[in-house]
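Retry 2 of 3 after timeout on previous attempt. Resubmitting structure tokens to design endpoint.
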């Protein structure tokens, strides 16, 4: 029987006093982390497009496998108060490698439901840096900004954090299998 969420309903939770009752659970509201989300493939898609040049954000001739830089297109054209810093990072080999290792790492963890804590922290850091690169305050007058504080980077980071905190991978992925590994039991931050 499928359980639907109601804020005053704790069906499916262990009775009071049983270990695990107050543990965050993927049984929360489906829209809050208890369900697979399309956003979980965002990082993998970005990786594949930058790697292969699928013709969406990255044309084939600028693909990483064809000698293109996965960071030059974005970081090379940022405007705003931090543009000097981020433009100087565009196209640097070490930045390209960090970015291209981070995208599939975060993406695989999010899709598989294993390693969500690392994915949430590293994904949030990556999204914070992307937000700062396009910081909405101080943009040129001809730049359209919908919200000067919150944008899609924060929404994606929040979804990653919620998936990690609610242990959504236990229900919708390999989280329980991953958690049972000795190395993960000894190092819960790998959860």
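Retry 2 succeeded. Sequence:
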């Amino acid at each position: 029987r499928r359980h639907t969420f109601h804020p005053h309903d704790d069906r499916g939770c262990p009775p009071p006093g049983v270990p695990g009752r107050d543990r965050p659970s993927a049984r929360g509201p489906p829209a809050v982390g208890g369900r697979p989300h399309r956003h979980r493939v965002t990082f993998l898609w970005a990786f594949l497009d930058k790697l292969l040049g699928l013709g969406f954000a990255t044309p084939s001739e600028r693909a990483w496998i064809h000698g293109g830089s996965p960071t030059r297109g974005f970081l090379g054209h940022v405007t705003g108060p931090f543009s000097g810093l981020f433009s100087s990072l565009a196209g640097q080999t070490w930045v390209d490698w960090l970015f291209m290792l981070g995208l599939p790492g975060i993406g695989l963890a999010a899709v598989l439901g294993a390693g969500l804590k690392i994915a949430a922290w590293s994904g949030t850091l990556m999204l914070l840096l992307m937000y700062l690169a396009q910081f909405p305050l101080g943009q040129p007058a001809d730049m359209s900004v919908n919200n000067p504080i919150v944008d899609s980077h924060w929404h994606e980071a929040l979804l990653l954090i919620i998936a990690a905190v609610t242990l959504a991978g236990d229900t919708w992925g390999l989280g329980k299998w991953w958690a049972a590994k000795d190395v993960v039991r000894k190092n819960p931050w790998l959860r």
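Attempt log closed. The two ends are 28 Å apart (CA to CA).
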